Amino acid sequence: MTKTFRSFLPTQARTAADRPVEALLKLSVAAGILGVSAVTIRRRVADGSLTPVRVNGRLYFEPGELRAFIARHREV
Question: In CATH, what class is 22-73?
């Protein structure tokens, strides 16, 4: 039996690699989804309530991060 590269990965890495990858969202797209301005998004990053992914100095957001933000700030 030939071992593949994946068989040498720790279980945690294998399960992470098996999950589908969601595209990162640009700051402007995140602002549109949340219905706020880009400046407001930058304020939320500065106060720590949103966590961006920085790529070459630009801010991107994981869709799950936006879903969690909405869940935390949902009015009942």
Answer: mainly alpha
